[in-house]
Design a protein that fits this description.
This protein has 70 residues and is mainly α. The protein has one domain. It is 89% helix and 0% strand. The chain contains three helices and no strands. The model has no long low-confidence stretch (mean pLDDT 94).
Length: 70
């Protein structure tokens, strides 16, 4: 399970770094990709702990999306 989330963590950090460097378009594209990856993970998740972890990242991505829009 940690392997799955280590990639997600790295990609989210890339999104945050992209925003800090004002690369909004690249960060937005990566945000969409990571969101889709999380949705796919959610579809096949069976463990409750995994579901909680996925939802944490979804909340974070929603927050980042709101920041990009504003």
């Amino acid at each position: 399970m940690k392997d799955k989330f280590s990639v997600i963590k790295k990609e989210i950090q890339l999104i945050i770094d992209g925003l800090a460097l004002n690369h909004i378009a690249q960060a937005s594209i990566l945000l969409i990709k990571v969101s889709e990856d999380l949705e796919n993970m959610l579809d096949v998740a069976v463990d409750e702990a995994e579901l909680v972890e996925i939802s944490k990242y979804q909340v974070l991505l929603n927050y980042i999306h709101l920041k990009i829009k504003n």
